[in-house]
Amino acid sequence: MKRKDIIEFEVGKMEFGGVTRSQFDGKRIKMKGGITGQKVRAVVKKSRSDSAEVKMLELIEPSSLETAETCRHFRQCGGCSILSLEYEQQLRLKEKQVLELFEEKNISDFQYLGIESSPNVFGYRNKMEFTFGDEFKDGPLSLGMHKVGRFIDIVTVDDCRLVDSDFVSIMTSTRDFFDVRKIPYYRGFNHQGYLRHLVVRKGENTGELMINIVTSSQLDFDMEEYKNMLLDLDLKGNIVSILHTINDGLADAVQCDRLNVLFGQDYYTEKILGLSFKVSPFSFFQTNTKGAEKLYEIARNFAGDTGDGKVVFDLYSGTGTIGQMMSKTAKKVYGIEIVEEAVQAANENTKLNNIENCSFIAGDVSKIVSELPEKPDLIIVDPPRAGILGNGVKDISDFGAKEIVYVSCNPRSLVDNLVEFESRGYKVEKMKLMDLFPSTPHCETIILLSRTKA
Question: Does the active-site annotation cover 80?
Answer without folding.
Answer: no
